[in-house]
Amino acid sequence: xxxxxxxxxVAGYGMVQVLNGISLSVEEGEVAVVLGANGAGKTxxxxxxxxxxxxxxxxxxxxxxxxxxxxxxxxxxxxxxxPQGRGTVAQMDVDENLxxxxxxxxxxxxxxxxxxxxFELFPRLAERRKQAAGSLSGGEQQMLAIARALMMSPRLxxxxxxxxxxxxxxxxxxxxxLQQINTEFGTTMLVVEQxxxxxxxxxxxxxxxxxxxxxxxxxxxQIAADDTIRKAYLGI
Length: 236
Ligand SMILES: Nc1ncnc2c1ncn2[C@@H]1O[C@H](COP(=O)(O)OP(=O)(O)OP(=O)(O)O)[C@@H](O)[C@H]1O
Ligand SMILES: [Mg+2]
Prior knowledge:
Elements: E1 4-13, E2 16-26, E3 31-35, H1 42-49, E4 55-61, E5 64-65, H2 71-75, E6 79-82, H3 94-101, H4 108-121, H5 123-126, H6 138-150, E7 156-160, H7 168-185, E8 188-193, H8 196-202, E9 205-210, E10 213-219, H9 220-225, H10 227-234
Parallel strand pairs: 3-8, 3-9, 6-7, 7-8
Antiparallel strand pairs: 1-2, 1-4, 4-5, 9-10
Helix pairs in contact: 3-6
């Protein structure tokens, strides 16, 4: 059984259907990526998985149905979501944002230890513990958003375009860190990205989303090597 099994997922906004019945699965411990152009439905997919919009079909997480549950119930299964465009509380400082990330946990010692781990993983955040999240640079805010999600000790980490709006060198370092997190902590990740080359570089499996349909899926290596897919959908 896969950790996450999505079957025939349909979702949209009001009368407008965006996802036309997509199916994908994510194995425990892997990094999976959903690639797709602007407007393909990547953000909508993550919103549907986390119960933020009206959804039908099936989302099995550890064998349990998530469709029909509210977002706060889904979060309690330890599914963390780093939304598009950061996901930090601007007025709160770095320390407070990290503590907020752990709100569903009650193990004080574990939380303190994990906070320490985050500062080791992201030394720039350690230097800015008392700085308001809103005054951090774009790259630092993305790091804080990821660290905050990790404070939940997630079983599944959903990331919405972690490369968005960042300089190439910073993007590289964010992706290197994601890979490090996957290797060191074994965190399962589902990343949605437009930056196909970078995302395929850290992923084990990949899906290509085009206007609400999954048009290709397989191992990341297979997708990366497929000239037809690259040319038709990835523009690389
Ligand atoms: N709140 C909303 N209300 C109505 N339509 C929406 C809403 N959010 C997104 N859409 C529409 O749904 C479609 C898919 O949008 P979505 O945000 O999922 O795309 P995306 O793949 O994440 O794109 P991007 O790479 O630009 O973030 C688009 O046509 C968009 O206009
Ligand atoms: Mg999006």
